[in-house]
């Protein structure tokens, strides 16, 4: 399974990067992508978060977009996040927000990117909300961590980031950021990375993932475990039970459109569960990574599409 999954993942991410494939997918794949995306408009996304809230499921909202071509494009994304934070506050939703640094211009103008994200984080603080700066692929790992540290030094502590367990550097980053009090979402990792920077075997990735989860739980830090892996979920449940760690000390996070019944079940069992809810028209890169995570995602989406 490990070799097959690795081949599937690398093949899909490689093919998805071909311009013609992307063009055809965007033209004909919207119906499939709807499984993972909560609509194209802010209003649709807020309504879906409200529905999830009634099931006991918290949310983090993500206005889709990454890899902009001109720095001026970041302005529109920034404004959308300011409106998003207002919408959450107005409707009193149990949701924070997630954004990607390249969406705000990191690859084009780091200074402008920082100014954009700082404005969003500052506005979120005024609304008593939180901003999660998503972690992208390795060219941006250090820059993203540095940005979070700089914001916190300015007193904007309502910001955190993500650590990807498949990277070799993550064990060190986890210890350092934990000591600094940075809020982290812990994930396995969803980008195509080279052998010299990331674990390739599923067993190695899982071992790293468990290690950083244990580190956070043992230190008493609020722990956000983002996974759909039943084995990891059951392992966390057992670990916190044997250590006497209360359910309020951690949360599970899952993606919109995947295992929604399981998310509602966890909420009913008293666990804190947060759903990552993306919306917007720039869905292709996000959708591709979801399909690349495992063949079952592709089969599930195709099956769902045929039923409509």
From TrEMBL:
Record's keyword terms, sorted: FAD, Flavoprotein, Nucleotide-binding, Oxidoreductase, Proline metabolism
Residue positions binding substrate: 100, 289-290
Domain of life: Bacteria
TM annotation in the entry: none
Catalytic activity: L-proline + a quinone = (S)-1-pyrroline-5-carboxylate + a quinol + H(+)
GO biological process: L-proline catabolic process to L-glutamate
Cofactor(s) listed: FAD
Co-factor binding details: Binds 1 FAD per subunit.
Gene3D superfamilies: 3.20.20.220
GO MF, one example: proline dehydrogenase activity
Pfam families for the chain: Pro_dh
EC number(s) from the headed UniProt entry: 1.5.5.2
Chain sites annotated for binding FAD: 135, 164, 188-190, 227-228
Residue stretches making up the Proline dehydrogenase domain: 46-294
Pathway(s) this gene product operates in, as recorded in its UniProt entry: Amino-acid degradation; L-proline degradation into L-glutamate; L-glutamate from L-proline: step 1/2
PANTHER family from the UniProt entry: PROLINE DEHYDROGENASE 1, MITOCHONDRIAL, PROLINE OXIDASE
Descriptive protein name: proline dehydrogenase
Organism encoding this protein: Paenibacillus arenilitoris
